[in-house]
Amino acid sequence: MESNLSCPTCGCEHVYPDGSLWICPECGNEWSQDAANDAAGAAEGQGDIRDANGNVLADGDTVTVIKDLKIKGSSQAVKGGTKVKNIRLIDGTDGHNIACKIAGFGAMNLKSEFVKKS
């Protein structure tokens, strides 16, 4: 039995396998082995920030903007194909998880889904 597996419903750590299912003795929840493996894999890689192509990003990487991005409060837009050097990964609560400086625009935050690793 995996020691870090817990119930997805109540969070109980005393789950046990029964055939192809995992069972929680506290709430009675049952789920498949495949779902348990997917959850364990997601827990291991949850800190990874990936670009639009699925590549893992790191601090200091250079990325390219893949589409025109409107800037809130401005009539300008960051054009697709703009290279952004020396990015910093942040834990943005609004979905913006890249902090950077773009020439001509200054400091701003970007979403990783709109960039690709260069």
Could you please describe the fold and organization of this structure?
The structure is a single chain. The protein has one helix and eleven strands. It is mostly beta strands and 118 residues long. The strands form four sheets. It has a three-stranded antiparallel β-sheet. Strands 7-4-11 form a three-stranded antiparallel β-sheet, with no helix packed on it. Strands 8-9-10 form a three-stranded antiparallel β-sheet, with no helix packed on it. The model has no long low-confidence stretch (mean pLDDT 84). This is Alkylphosphonate uptake protein PhnA.
Q: Care to give the gist of this entry?
A:
The chain has 118 residues and is mostly beta strands. It has one helix spanning 33-44; strands spanning 16-18, 21-23, 30-32, 63-65, 69-70, 77-78, 83-84, 88-89, 98-102, 106-110, 115-117. The N and C termini lie far apart (41 Å).
Q: What is the radius of gyration computed over CA atoms, rounded to a whole number of angstroms?
A: 20 Å
Look at the helices and sheets and give the structural class: mainly beta
CATH topology of the largest domain: SH3 type barrels
- At CATH level 2, the architecture of the largest domain is Roll
Determine the N-to-C terminus distance: 41 Å
Tally of individual helices = 1
- 3D shape: elongated
Oligomer: single chain
Family: Belongs to the YjdM family.
Pfam family, one: YjdM
Protein name: Alkylphosphonate uptake protein PhnA
